[in-house]
Amino acid sequence: MPAVYVLIALVAVAIAIFALQNADQVTVRFLAWQVERAPLAAVVLVAGAVGAILVSLVAFVQHWKLRSRVRQLEARLRDLEAGKPESAIGKTR
Question: pTM of the prediction?
């Protein structure tokens, strides 16, 4: 577990160095929306964070669907192990 803390600290230091080295001001435009003089590092870090959040949401939905399917199959397996005939269980697909 201490190795995880060291890794987190290294990532935090790398982000800090990145932010310090990329302090240039940029203009961000998206459709009718515009932000002037935003720090380049902030733009990049926010874009990365938004991307990570979106990927996490997609992964969460997939995990939830798979977990639901596993529960369904576990219930079917319990029924089969209890000796119930498959015609009484019903097809789950």
Answer: 0.61
